[in-house]
């Protein structure tokens, strides 16, 4: 799974990315600070299943703090987008190609309206961030439309002449964008049966539907701490009721994580408070108290962790599954519940077996639900925070 961080230039995308991943990235107050995409690992936060077994887990990857488990997720931050990107403006073509493999998108916007359409700093409140959502939707839709339209006349004639199934042919053409046959089949159910009769409006409608299905998106309304942001976020929610819109402050999340990394504070991402544990200067204390009062206490969190969680669990509908033994939860090194995997909704015990190892899938016999101690078959529908032991012939 790959989470794509997108948005206009200079709205805090790279800060948001670093706040999620603590990866070293260039953060600058000018357009196109990001030229090559930044890759890193973010962490979704869940209630760890170790409490069910009255134990403490030892993750091999990620961490577990106060029984809050952090599970790794691949994240990419791509170059800033400007109007006309699909026509090659700005770094548009590179931006779009970098997004091919993304499963879900987080659109970071400047909720304070302190950045114009070109990504240049302006007086807070003097730009309407609603425009950013509209223009980015348009750029993505036109990107899909252009890909579908490449050699369309020849493509459509070939489908008709060779009696190919339309949805399969289109899905194959767009497979690099994570478009599936089911997505296309559902999208074209009301289209003319003869593909030659499709008009430009039909193809643009197809592009919009497939973009929404293959690249679900939520909005991270950044710079929440600025005075003009709250009203703008209310307007965004009215304008785009179908979007998940989360107010966030990437700057302050990054500051808290950096302080935690240096053992100055104890902070669990997504929580509404922190504990000072290190020796701080008066200036550092004042800065942290400002964050506590004006962000954490006022809004409940910085919003950054919540944004990633909702992208993975609310939009993609993923679930977390642990491998474990009915008689032993630890691995050979003594690590308790060392691994936790993210799987799509409706995954089965057999899907999980293949996730663990191809041989487990090929030689699957049965599985045991460690929490219920019940034997389940290959078609067992996995539930969030299940713990499974896979029994195979090898």
Description:
With 394 residues, the protein is α/β, with parallel strands linked by helices. The chain folds into three domains: 2-127 and 216-313, 3-Layer(aba) Sandwich (Rossmann fold), CATH 3.40.50; 142-210, Orthogonal Bundle (Helicase, Ruva Protein, domain 3); 321-392, Beta-grasp domain (Ubiquitin-like (UB roll), Roll), CATH 3.10.20.30. Helices cover 36% and strands 18% of the residues. It has 13 helices and 14 strands. The chain has helices at 13-21, 92-98, 130-149, 152-161, 166-173, 181-187, 200-214, 229-239, 250-261, 282-299, 304-315, 349-356, 358-362; strands spanning 2-6, 38-47, 63-65, 68-77, 104-110, 217-222, 245-247, 265-266, 275-276, 319-323, 341-343, 364-369, 374-376, 386-392. Strands 1, 2, 3, 4, 5, 6 and 7 form a seven-stranded mixed β-sheet that branches. It has a five-stranded mixed β-sheet with strand order 11-10-14-12-13. Strands 8-9 form a two-stranded antiparallel ribbon. It is flat. The two termini are 28 Å apart.
């Amino acid at each position: 799974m790959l989470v794509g961080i997108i948005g206009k230039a200079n709205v805090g995308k790279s800060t948001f990315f670093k706040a999620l991943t603590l990866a070293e990235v260039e953060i600058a107050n000018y357009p196109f600070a990001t030229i090559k995409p930044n890759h890193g690992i973010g962490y979704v936060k869940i209630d760890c299943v170790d409490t069910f077994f009255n134990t403490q887990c030892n993750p091999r990857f990620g961490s577990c703090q106060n029984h809050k488990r952090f599970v790794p997720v691949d994240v990419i931050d791509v170059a800033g987008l400007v109007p006309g990107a699909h026509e090659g403006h700005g770094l548009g073509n590179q931006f779009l190609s970098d997004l091919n493999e993304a499963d879900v998108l987080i659109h970071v916007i400047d909720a304070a309206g302190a950045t114009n359409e070109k990504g240049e700093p302006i007086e807070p409140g003097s730009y309407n961030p609603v425009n950013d959502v509209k223009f980015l939707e348009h750029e993505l839709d036109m990107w899909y439309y252009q890909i579908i339209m490449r050699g369309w006349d020849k493509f459509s004639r070939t489908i008709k002449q060779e009696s190919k199934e339309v949805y399969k042919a289109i899905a194959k053409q767009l497979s690099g964008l994570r478009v599936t046959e089911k997505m296309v089949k559902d999208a074209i159910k009301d289209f003319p049966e003869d593909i030659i009769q499709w008009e430009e409006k039909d193809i643009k409608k197809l592009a919009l539907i497939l973009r929404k299905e293959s690249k679900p998106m939520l909005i991270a309304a950044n710079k929440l701490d600025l005075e003009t942001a709250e009203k703008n976020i209310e307007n965004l929610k009215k304008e785009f009721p179908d979007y998940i819109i989360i107010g966030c402050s990437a700057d302050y999340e990054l500051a808290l994580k950096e302080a935690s990394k240096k053992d100055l504070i104890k902070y669990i991402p997504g929580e509404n408070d922190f504990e000072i544990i290190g020796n701080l200067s008066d200036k550092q204390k004042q800065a942290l108290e400002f964050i506590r009062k004006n962000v954490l206490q006022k809004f409940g969190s910085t919003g950054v962790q919540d944004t990633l969680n909702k992208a993975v669990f609310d939009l993609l509908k993923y679930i977390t599954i642990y491998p474990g033994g009915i008689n032993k939860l630890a691995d050979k090194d003594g690590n308790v519940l060392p691994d936790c995997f993210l799987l799509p909704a409706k995954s089965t015990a057999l899907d999980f077996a293949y996730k663990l190892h191809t041989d487990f899938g090929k030689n699957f016999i049965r599985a045991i639900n460690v929490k219920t101690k019940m034997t389940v078959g290959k078609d067992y529908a996995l539930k969030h925070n299940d713990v499974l032991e896979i029994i195979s012939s090898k």
